[in-house]
Design a protein that fits this description.
Layout: E1 14-16, E2 26-30, E3 33-36, H1 37-48, E4 56-59, H2 64-76, E5 80-83, H3 89-98, E6 103-106, E7 117-119, E8 133-135, E9 139-144, E10 154-158, H4 159-177, E11 185-189, H5 196-208, E12 211-214, H6 221-229, E13 235-239, H7 241-248, E14 259-262, H8 269-279, E15 283-289, E16 293-299, E17 306-308, E18 313-317, E19 320-324, E20 332-334, E21 336-341, E22 344-350, E23 354-357, E24 360-363, H9 364-372, E25 379-384, E26 396-401, H10 407-415, E27 427-429, H11 443-453
Parallel strand pairs: 2-12, 4-5, 4-6, 5-9, 6-7, 11-12, 11-13, 13-14, 14-15, 26-27
Antiparallel strand pairs: 1-8, 2-3, 9-10, 15-16, 16-17, 17-22, 18-19, 19-20, 21-22, 23-24, 25-26
Helix pairs in contact: 1-2, 4-5, 7-8
Amino acid sequence: MVAVIKHAGREPRVLSLLNFTKARRALAWRDGRPIDTAEFLADVAKVAALLPPARSAVNLCVDRYAFLVAFCAVLTRGQTNLLPPSRAPQAIEETLAANPGSYVLGECAPAAAMPRFVALPLLGGEATDAQPAIAAEQVAAIGYTSGSTGQPKPNPKRWASFRASTERNVAALGAAMRLGPDTVAHVVATVPPQHMYGIELSILLPLLGPFAVHGGQPLFPADVAAALADLPEPRLLVTTPVHLRALLADPVALPRLAAIASATAPLDAALAAAAEARYGAPVLEMFGSTETCVIAQRRTALETDWRLYDGLRLRPQPDGTLVEAPYFDQPVALQDLVELCPGGFRLCGRHADLIEIAGKRASLADLTRRLLALPGVRDAAVLQQETPDAIGVRRIAALVVAPERSEAELLEALRAEVDPAFLPRPLRKVDALPRNETGKLPRAALLAVLRDQS
């Protein structure tokens, strides 16, 4: 079943689910064995036949191959995959409430009771070459922002737009990995598939390019190494700066990599260089957002400027940047401030990240970077408080993970780095920051920790 959307004055347009001609190649790896396209298509058909009539489904599958099958089964029924900002019961309930009549799809029922839950059947054992077609204008997914700068917001993604943006990732990663015309690269991802970056680089890549994905979601260094060892070369590790830092802090050796991709948070050049030196592979930092998907990349150890993907255009604005792409319905606004340069752009911070106190301006990201650079600091976040003080100023606060240093020592060391107007008051030590599965720091979670520490 394919949802067909008619356009005035032209025929309906559909696009295939898979985008390659090599028959029965490996699409995924699960339990130590490859799963080819014929087995995958049979699994998609099996799951699609079980889905109830609805407009959308919350895809909670943890196993990456199960998520891939469920994602495509929902598509073939003409429905939309809902991707909540987290797996927390409240986030799921809010997503369901915003999309009446939706159901929940997963390998097994969540601990908290969920209405209209559909469990995936046992996958594997059958094969078919019948490939479904998807309406180009179908909303394939609705991704929600992480909430790092406020409340999560829905962002619908059409199938045609998803395909077009993924084609650029396929080209960029293929060039970085020097893939031959008949080579299939193998992907291990530490980021969950519900995240937009996770969907782009671990779900859409194998559907639309010469990639096969590992079914797991390893987090600890030993698990990442084991997952990579399950796969043949060439290997691509899709990860985040938080996970990359943890890998470098662990003595475990990784199997040979062809490339590492990183996103969800700024990647420090020194961290990228250390990863390249240890693993002998280029580290590609991907730039994008839930609103735009990936639009640029750079090799952070060697490059400062970002290389914009072909066919895209940036229009700097006083409060951010408009992104134009041939597959967007209209320009998309980002909070990021950029400076255009030949072939790409330079990031100048985010509009929401810039603060002004006593007539002076600073960037929260720069203040955080300076705090992270202090000896003994393992993690840190600087934010502006919600409530003004007695003279109407919203002061700066900081949360720091630094077991061997006192709050007073940290504040004194930071005094030499920043203007007194931007010294964090308070600066609180904590055991860990409230990072989500992708390493992001939702603002609401930071404020909650800050309140608890007051």
